[in-house]
Amino acid sequence: MTTIDNLPPLKIVIETHNLRARKSLGQNFLLDLNLTSKIARQAGELKNVDILEIGPGPGGLTRGLLSEGARKVLAIEKDARCLPALEEISNKYPGRLEVVRGDALDFNPLVYLNAPIRVVANLPYNVGTELLVRWLTPEDWPPFWKSLTLMFQREVAERIVATPGSKAYGRLSIMAQWRSDPKIVMSLQPDAFTPPPKVSSAVVHFEALPEPRFKANMQVLNSLVSTAFNQRRKMLRSALKMISPDIEDRLKIAGIKPTDRAEKVSLESFCALARNIESE
Q1: Is 115 found in the same domain as 249?
Q2: 213-266 residue pLDDT tens
Q3: Rounded to the nearest 5°, which phi and psi values hold at 118?
C-alpha cells in the first residue's frame, strides 16, 4: 500500500473512519497517494505558497500538497465525518494545515490565507463548475489566486479548453480563456476513484493572466455569451435580439456575421461585440 508521509494508506483511513463516499456531496475519493502527489505537482512550485483546497475528503490530495512543500493548506470540508482524518494529517504537519468545516459556496477564504495563493482541489462534481465561474468572474482583476489546479469531469475539462467551431465550445470556454491560460494537464480513468464515477476525469491548470486578453466589461461579456450560447442553434441576429434593437449592425461592426452561430465566434470577436454594446 502506498504512503508518502508515514501516515496510514488512504484505504485504511477510509475504513477506520467509515468514510463511505456520499453521492449527495459529489464525493469520489482518490486512494493512490502517488497520484495525489502528481496532481499537487501540476500546481507548480508550492514552497512559500498558501493553498486553498475544497472538499479534501479523507485528505489524499491534502497529504500530497503538504508533502510537496506547501507553506500552508486551508482545507474547506462540508462533511463532518472527514474531520478526524484531517486532524490526523494536521498533527503530522503542525502549523501547516488548517481545516474549516463549511460550504465553499458561502465561505471567504482570504481571511485565512496570505499571498501568493494557489487553489488546488478535486472539486465535488456538484459544485465544481459554479466555483470555477466565481473564481473567473470577480469584479476586480487580477484575482486573489495565482493559479487554479482543479479536477473536473472530462466533459467539463474539454469545454474549458475548447476552441471555436467545436461542439464543446461555449460560455465556459470564453470566460476561462479570457482571463486565464487553461490547459488539461492530467487525465484519470474512473477506476482511479472510490467509488468509480461513470465518467472519466481530467485535471485542468489555469494560470491567471495579469489582465484579460481583450478589453471588455466582465458583466456585459458574461451576459452576452450566456445569451448567445443558451440559444446556440439560432443565428446570432435572432439569439441576441433582446440584447440590442440594432444587434445586426453591432454584430457587423464587431466583425461577426449576423447569420453566424455562437460556436463560430472567437473570444476576440465576442469582446469586440461586448465593447460595442457597452458603448450604446
Answers
A1: no
A2: 999 999 999 999 999 999 999 999 999 999 999 999 999 999 999 999 999 999
A3: -115, 145
Cβ burial of 61 (10 Å; 0-12, 13-18, 19+) is buried
Q: Which of 111, 112, 119 is nearest to 143 (CA)?
A: 119
Question: In the chain, how long is the greatest CA-to-CA distance?
Answer: 66
User: Residues 156-162: contacts with CB within 8 Å, 24+ apart?
Assistant: 156/128, 156/129, 157/184, 157/201, 157/202, 157/203, 157/204, 158/184, 158/202, 160/132, 160/204, 161/204
Q: Do 174 and 163 contact (CB within 8 A), yes or no?
A: no
Question: 174 — phi, psi (to 5°)?
Answer: -60, -50
Are residues 136 and 66 part of one domain? yes
Domains identified in the chain, total number: 2
96 plus 115 within the same structural domain: yes
C-alpha cell, 143: 484575482
The pTM score is 0.93
Given 3-state DSSP classes, what are the helix, strand and coil percentages for the chain, each rounded to the nearest 5? Answer: 40, 20, 40
Q: Which amino acid is present at 269? A: S
Domain containing 240 — which CATH number? 1.10.8.100
> What tens digit of pLDDT does each residue of 97-137 get?
999 999 999 999 999 999 999 999 998 877 889 999 999 99
| pLDDT tens, residue by residue, 137-173 | 999 999 999 999 999 999 999 999 999 999 999 999 9
